[in-house]
Amino acid sequence: MNVTGIEQGSYFLGRLSSVLGGRDLLPYLGELHASPLPRWFERIVADEPTFAKKRFASIWQLRFYRIWVYALVRDLRPAVFVETGVLHGMLSAFVLEAMRVNGHGRLISIDLPSYADTGPANVDGYQGTLPPGREPGWLVPDELRERWDLRLGPSLELLPGVLEETAGELDVFLHDSDHTHETMSGEFALAWPALNPGGALIADDSTDNTAFAELCERVGATPLLFPNPNESPHDEARAGLILKPRTA
């Protein structure tokens, strides 16, 4: 059977639903199809020569990773979502769009910029950089910036202060900064104790090293591992999700 990326993504959206107690997430997919988000992206990238794609005919062209994070935010309705790693800010925009629809929540993003003239800030081998003259999160539409707090600097330096400021409010933490064992394990050690019961911890590129697996073993959590299909299937596990138990 030829399974498309859309079918694969729908299957994993069902897996996420089961982890969240069986709540129906499909209406959130319908929301995204009607969302202004793709048109906002088209407006922003229209004059950016380094972005070859200027039109988005389907929400699936924007990657399943962002779709399921949107559904998670719509379902959990986090008071505070903290992410490390921003670069262009497309995932940030999906989180903020979910918060806009929720009418609730605040996103705090930490990023060590990878400027075009200085090169990648990460030491994990990832070569992505910002287009010349662009700042981190340049793809976040003006319409969504009201709930956004962007802070620039190394995650392990800034994260302790952010978690102290948001004590008792953190419902989702997402790692997507430097994918070294040192940075990932350091962020997890800080974020997991601060996460509210019932909250979610997400690790992008979760299999790049053993830090996420070690966290899961330490806290006794079975992760949900997602591939990253767009319109074509993709079988390699990439992002991982665990929920913090509501009771000890």
What characteristics describe this protein?
globular; Rossmann fold; seven-stranded mixed sheet
Overview of the structural elements:
The protein has helices at residues 5-19, 26-34, 37-45, 64-76, 90-102, 155-165, 181-194, 211-219; strands at 80-84, 106-111, 148-152, 170-175, 200-203, 224-226, 239-243. The chain is built from 8 helices and 7 strands. It is 38% helix and 14% strand. Strands 3-2-1-4-5-7-6 form a 7-stranded mixed sheet, with helices on both faces. It has a single domain, classed as Rossmann fold (3-Layer(aba) Sandwich), CATH 3.40.50. Helix 1 runs parallel beside helix 4. The chain is α/β, with parallel strands linked by helices and 248 residues long.
Count of runs of 4 or more consecutive helical residues: 8
Give, in spatial order, the strands making up the sheet with the most strands. 3-2-1-4-5-7-6
**Main sheet characteristics:** 7 strands, mixed
Helix content: 25-40%
Q: Remind me, CATH topology?
A: Rossmann fold
CATH classification class: Alpha Beta
Count up the domains: 1
What would you say the CATH architecture is? 3-Layer(aba) Sandwich
Shape descriptor reads: globular
Detail the poorly predicted runs: none
Question: CA-to-CA gap between the ends?
Answer: 43 Å
Structural class from helices and strands? alpha/beta
* Proportion of residues in extended strands: 5-15%
Mean pLDDT: 93
The H-level CATH homologous superfamily, spelled out, is Vaccinia Virus protein VP39
Any idea what the radius of gyration is?
A: 17 Å
Along the chain, the helix and strand elements come as: HHHHEHEEHEHEHEE
How many beta-strand runs? Answer: 7
